[in-house]
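Handoff note, outgoing to incoming analyst
You'll be picking up this chain. Sequence as last confirmed:
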Amino acid sequence: MTVDEAARVPVVIVGAGPVGVTAALLLARRGVRSVVLERHEDIYPLPRAVAGDDEIHRILQAAGVGEAFAAIARPAKGLRLLDARHRVMAEFRRTEHGHHGYPQTSMFDQPELERVLRDALARHPECELRGGVEVTGVGPAGTGPVRVGYRDDGGEHELWADAVLGCDGAGSLTREAIGSAWEDLHFEERWTVIDAETTGPVRCWEGVDQVCDPKRPGTFMRVNDTRFRWEFRTQEGREPARELIAPWLPPSYDGDFEVVRETQYTFRARVADRWRSGRVFLLGDAAHLTPPFIGQGLCSGLRDAYNLAWKLARVLQQGGDEKLLDTYESERRPHARHVVRLAVAMGWAMTGGQDSAAAIRRRALAAACRIPGLTELAGRDLSPPLTAGPLVRRSVRRRLAGTHCPQPWVSVAGRRTRLDEALGDSFAVLTATEPGPSLTAVAHSLGVHAVPVTDLGDDGTLAAWLRTGHADAVLLRPDRVVMDIVPAGGRDFTSTAAWAPLLHTTRSPDPSERTARQGMLRSTTR
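Most recent structure output, in case you need it:
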């Protein structure tokens, strides 16, 4: 096969939605060039996703748009379950200072988020966005360069990529190209979605309401000062939007009210049975579809991007083993499947189902919501730990492994910043005390320095977290997942032999590979 080197690029990303653009930004921050192919000329102007959690805000921070996202987002107080008469059955509170350093739930307008991401993309010379194009083919997905064909007003074109990321949605051409099929998780309902603008006195609280009424289940939330969203399970016969949302407005309200969008969606629960073929990968809705009841659709897609970007950059630029890329699907697919099942469970709680056991389930839900402490437990992070694998050394003594390190504010070189900004984009070793020779050697093999948490000048969050996890040290991956720990009283990470070949950490990295932020840390932790 002859490859036109002028058409050769490291990464082609199919789809310039939030997942595709975030993936491009994360790769660009690691020096990996990409071309993003998008069928639309500009951002789709109507709202879709409206909620995200603190983990997603942290990912956007890693992509370089954390502050810009905070400027367009509004913290929300959590989730309430209401009965058919809109009486509160349960309330799951979310705080403004979550584990990842941001509000646990934020409301936003997706077109505004996409504008923030596109503006950041335009500032990166490593990224090129080609809009108004139609991708016509992807493959073959073997060990060599992958051909991506597309057409625009100028005719037919092709690119040859070292890797292709299919971020092209539920009808993904990329998924079809790798022969992936859907696993059906058995939830499918037709819902009407209404987005409206009004300055009227809408009856609401500062969170999301789920109406658990089997005759007319619904979801309601305030997105920003004047934008609101309602979702209702569709019934026979079309009902006007004003009639559907009447319970939230004063009787006979005749003030300003504009329906920005009214459409119908089929909510489905599906996970692709394979997420990778060679160097072709599926991300976002191309890999999983979830009902929106716990607000994790876009969140799961951004997690995909964060999980894959650092691994792909390691393979393309730093000699990482090809098997490192296998961990993308093995880590993300079970995680996404778990989150989709949570959404399905919430969907059944809302609708109650339509079979003979529906009334029993509703009574069981109401009783469960009265159990002391249950609502607090259910209100915690929805993202479970990653399962054990080559990059997650999970065991009874290593219960922090697979979870995320918290992100407090720290003080480095006299400057107050967030932990991830201080650590940079690479691995990190955090220790409870001064690191010994073995921990220093592991850190050096990864091109970083072992850092005592007492040198970071935080509020004690990191030290308390280590104590709670019975850990004397943790090894953090670039996505801030705990890869391994040194248990209290231990001396070393015991699993180096398992992961070192994947990362090719057999040599001391050149100092030029270290980021400026790591240099800043080094100067303060000697």
